[in-house]
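Database export, one record per block. Field names are fixed; values are copied verbatim from the stored entry.
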Amino acid sequence: MSSSTTESLIESAIGQLEKLPPQQPQQVLDYIEFLAQKYIEPQTPQPRISGLHRGMGWISDDFNDPIPPDYWRDTKSR
């Protein structure tokens, strides 16, 4: 589409927007944003880097121990 055609469309759209009731322009903008997201080319995902966060997390030694029965009874302390 040529730039003059695009400018003409924009001017026409602005003219129509100005005629709408106050709440309608927001709905038009929402629809334009929807279309922009729908037709944008998807970006290629970045490859994962193995070991990037090595050593930054830990798991407690008692991680797999059973949960004590008192834990389930005492709900007010949480």
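Remark 1: Residues 3-19 form the longest helix (17 residues).
Remark 2: The mean pLDDT is 87.
End of record.
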